[in-house]
Amino acid sequence: MLIRASLGMAVAMSLIGLAQTVWQLLLLRLLAGLLGGYASGATILVATQTPKARSGWALGVLSSGIMAGSLAGPLIGGVLPPLIGIRNTFFLAGGVIFITFLATLLLLHEMPRKAPSRATDSALPAVVKLSGEQRRMITCMFVVASLVMFSTMSVEPIITVYLRQLKTDNVTMMAGVVMSATALGSILAASRLGRLADRIGYLPVLASCLAMTALTLIPQAWVSNVWQLAALRFFMGLALGGLLPCVAAIIRHTVPNEVAGRMLGYSTSSQYLGQVLGPLAGGLLGGYLGMGSVFSGTAMVLAACSIMVGRMGMIRTPVSSKL
After folding, report:
1. pTM value?
2. Rounded distance, CA 2 to CA 29, Å?
3. Distance CA 20, CA 112 (A)
4. 206-245: per-residue pLDDT in tens?
5. Domains of the chain
6. 210 near 305, Cβ under 8 Å?
């Protein structure tokens, strides 16, 4: 999957540099999305190949790397076009991704897995074999993964409008600073929170991070300048860093090894659903009820997730006792 994703993205990104019309650009961007998925594939690989006792730390390190790319990419992408041109920027990006393809092909070696039995050849028998408690835990994690991305992305469409309300100079640049502050916080915290979760349990860390994220969202509706907002987004990023690594680790510990990759793939699909619905909901809510309602509504969603996860952890069962 990683080889296919990296090679496909390298080709698609290079072809974007050759686009002559808006429709060609749109189709090539769609192709890039269809061929992509390297980050989600890497998450599945790390989760299934890492010893369970250290899965939280490993997923946290990976999350830090992904967030570092999310932070550096837009900054570099903004600097390069004036220097080398927009088309050459896409060619350069394609070349960098092709290097990733070569590194994946030559340096990454997946540990061999046992041949699947007939019982795990199809999706239905594997799901049926899960106990009711396992299904409840997995469903809870799918919901949390989707709502985390929903809440994170709901702010995206309104951030520049909100900064204008704060009478911010150079809105475009400061919007980048505000969004980068969140990524920076996640980079610093993800591996540490993952290691903490390996030691004290994934459910307590997940519930606490959800609660802290909700608490840092509420005052964002009442800030008076951009630097207050950036500081709150940074602290929110610290809490966000522990969310998705803990979700992936919980899924990894809950299901049998034979279906771990499949369930993590479903979790990734849940995240993409949240990424699609979040901006739509944020834009509608901000347009009808005001910008502050987006932060308050998002905080309520994450607080509900924290309560749900906390209740799952309080009920001592064979599954939750391992988490």
Report:
1. 0.80
2. 19
3. 45
4. 999 999 999 999 999 999 899 999 999 999 999 998 898 8
5. 2-108+131-322 (1.20.1250.20)
6. yes
